[in-house]
Amino acid sequence: MHLPLEVPTGLPIGDDWIDTPTTEPVHFPYDGSEISRAPTGTADLARKAIEAALAVEDEAADLPARLRHELLMRAHATIAAKAAELEQLLVLETGKPLRDCRVEVQRALLTLLLSAQESMRLHGETVPVDLLPSGDGLVAYYQRVPIGVVVGIAGFNYPFLLAMHKVAPAVAAGCPVICKPAPQTPLATLWLAKVLRDAASAVGASPALVQVVTGGVDVGEALTTDPRIGAVSFTGSAAVGHRIARAAAPRKVLLELGSNAALVVAADANLEAAADAAVNGGFYASGQACISVQRLIVEEPVYDDFLKLVADRATEVRVGDPRDEATQVSRLIDETSTTRVREWIGDALEHGASVVAGGAVDALVPTVLRDVDTDHVVWSEEVFGPVVVARSVPDLDTAFDVVNDSRYGLHASVFTASLSTAMTAIRRLKVGGVIVNEVPGFRSDTMPYGGVKDSGIGREGPRYAIEELTVTKMAVIRS
């Protein structure tokens, strides 16, 4: 198949592109066809990339802010000019509907622009050390300096955007970065690396500032356990994130992990708007988003009326070929994921849940289940598919308790007409973000984004990621 963009055939390691002894097929999830072959990285290549990154660590830190800004803006111009082709490439390697891939590209461009702007805002401040007599006559200040080599590991669902959230802030902070894409979706990340490396060369910087190593667990272990790296930024499952945190310690680890995002519907809510949010927020990206709506927690007086509205909307969701402009839900990333989701639905039905829309026949069908037991896996764990589950509660105090009764805590939302209820939700919900009268999946790339509990640690968004990827260095001077 002819790809919409020319993707390099090797791995960008050091100053060169290295051909690998083996390649792996990349499949179009919708029909399983092979769209390309991608270079297969190894642990040895990962170690070579680390050595190359360490060799340019001082160069990256000393690169003037104006040149980091120029580098990122050059990349922004290239990507903006190829946005339509990039969208098509993302459809092919992720199987995600075109409408979602368009959003991904626009968000990635904004992330790149914001990173360029933040590269000009790194600063410190003076510190009043003369609060004790020992500080009399001293001048003290701190500055923010790069943390060192950054390893970024991205998930398959938004491969270009997630890679951008690792790579662009690292470059803005003055850190060399090595990115490892998910094995299923390496193509857009390899193209991104070429764009950024070309931009680095154009401003006189080493291409080794940005490297990519594909591969499996052995590559990830080699990248995250080297004691000389500065930080690891990982987006993926909680189980893998926990292993990385243990293996990388005591180096800094930023984790964007899973969730089972809740949408609370108060009795005074606009039910039409809440139903729209439940469906739109539950099924975008075919449900493969960590802050997609998974749990609907509804006050009892409006439970049945609300679910009827949800059912009506869910049956109207367009399922089909992701290349079609009208498609809203398509196939999941692979058959293993599809089988798991189908089994979770079937098991929930066997344990007392009932179907509001869809069902266990095919995991592609947008599915809504009611009266799901809170101990069941489809409620308590991350589905990562087009499945939304619902329960009623007697009051909002109970609703907030049910939201918090989870090992996850990324985003949650509440639909209500009451300012008091909204403020109570913001205070009580143990999550990284509370969204009022909008989907829990709302995310602006300008805001600090991240979770609590098993949903991770650290924050993304260029300004906040750059703070995570720099450290304070104190200067104390006696004149």
Explained architecture:
The protein is an alpha/beta fold. It has 2 domains: 273 residues, Aldehyde Dehydrogenase, Chain A, domain 1 (3-Layer(aba) Sandwich); 175 residues, Aldehyde Dehydrogenase, Chain A, domain 2, CATH 3.40.309. The protein has 16 helices and 20 strands. The strands form 5 sheets. The protein has a 7-stranded mixed beta sheet with strand order 14-15-16-13-12-17-18, with helices on both faces. A 6-stranded mixed beta sheet has the order 9-8-7-10-11-19, with helices on both faces. Strands 5-6-20 form a 3-stranded antiparallel beta sheet. Strand 12, helix 10 and strand 13 form a beta-alpha-beta unit. The termini are far apart.
Q: What is the CATH-assigned architecture of the largest domain?
A: 3-Layer(aba) Sandwich
Strands side by side in the biggest sheet = 14-15-16-13-12-17-18
Whole-angstrom Rg: 23 Å
Which regions have little confidence, pLDDT < 50, spanning 5+ residues?
A: none
Distance between the termini: 68 Å
The CATH superfamily label of the largest domain reads Aldehyde Dehydrogenase, Chain A, domain 1
Helix content: 25-40%
In the residues, how many domains can be counted?
Answer: 2
What is the CATH class name of the largest domain? Answer: Alpha Beta
Q: Please give the largest β-sheet.
A: 7 strands, mixed
At the fold tier of CATH, the topology name of the largest domain is Aldehyde Dehydrogenase, Chain A, domain 1
Query: What is the average per-residue confidence, as pLDDT, rounded to a whole number?
Result: 96
Strand content: 15-25%
Q: Care to count the β-strands? A: 20
Give the count of helical stretches: 16
